[in-house]
Specification:
The chain is of the alpha/beta class. The protein has helices spanning 3-6, 18-26, 39-60, 86-91, 103-116, 127-132, 152-161, 178-191, 208-217; strands spanning 74-78, 95-100, 121-124, 137-143, 163-174, 220-231, 236-240, 246-253. Strand 6 (220-231) and strand 7 (236-240) form a beta hairpin. The chain is globular and about 45 Å long.
């Protein structure tokens, strides 16, 4: 059964779940607080940026140690939230479009970019609207968003369509396993209270095999995958072969 059929706040034929938008809009003021409700994303960001740089450097013949490793590349950060990933991409030289269905998030992101002196094209819009407008990108980022969309097949279809031939798509999300429920939902939301309760729904989590299959169906071939694990003793995230909870994958358009 589709999310639209299960949830009356989801319109058929859209990737947007209004309950999810309301949830994140309500805490939008916390985006740039390192110890606020989005603290896990602040800690996770160096790992995400490193993976994106490494995969982009391999594909486009760049040096991932170059401070302008993404110079000349057009990047879409779909579901950009407050811009935690859009800003580093811009600093790496990319021409960045940051898109989010929440106007509140886009307002926060836009203000922060101005304060940081960064030129980022932020838009309150959806994946399907961008695709319908014919937008194309060298790199499409879908980081920590696939577990929040209303219609995953539609989302993958529309975002995949925006990757230029030979371009890159990078995704990060949470696996649908008992271990992921225990650590990423019960542990992170109910015990450690890293995130507000209800941030994630177990039934909306996506297995790597499901995500890879959806990408292949839409013309992208898996190029890399890695797990991401948290070490509580060091309070640090790192990549790992363990993909049972958090993971990242990249794919290249044929």
């Amino acid at each position: 059964m589709s999310a639209a059929a299960q949830n009356p706040t989801v319109d058929p034929g859209t990737t947007v779940d209004q309950d999810e938008i309301a949830h994140f809009s309500a805490i939008a003021s916390e985006w740039w607080a390192p110890n606020g409700k989005f603290a896990p994303l602040h800690r996770l960001n160096p790992i995400r940026i490193g993976f994106i740089k490494e995969e982009a450097a391999k594909l486009f013949g760049r040096d991932d140690r170059d401070p302008k490793a993404l110079d000349g590349l057009r990047v879409l950060d779909i579901g950009c939230g407050g811009g935690l990933l859009s800003e580093p991409m811009a600093r790496l030289g990319a021409t960045v479009v940051g898109a989010d269905a929440s106007e509140t998030n886009i307002g926060v992101a836009s203000l922060h970019a101005v304060e940081a002196g960064l030129d980022i094209d932020y838009r309150a819009t959806t994946a399907e609207a961008l695709a319908a407008a014919g937008e194309r990108f060298d790199i499409v980022l879908a980081m920590e968003i696939v577990e929040h969309v209303a219609d995953l097949p539609l989302f993958i279809r529309e975002t995949s369509a925006m990757v230029k031939p030979g371009g890159l798509m990078v995704l990060s999300t949470i696996n649908r396993t008992p271990k992921a429920w225990a650590l990423a939902i019960f542990g992170a939301e109910c015990v450690l209270r890293w995130l507000p309760r209800g941030t994630h729904s177990y039934e909306k989590l996506v297995r790597p095999s499901e995500l890879s299959a959806a990408l292949r169906e839409n013309g992208l071939d898996l190029s890399a995958e890695t797990g991401v694990v948290y070490n509580p003793l060091r309070d640090r995230w790192s990549t790992s072969s363990d993909m049972d909870v958090n993971y990242m994958i990249s794919a290249v358009r044929r």
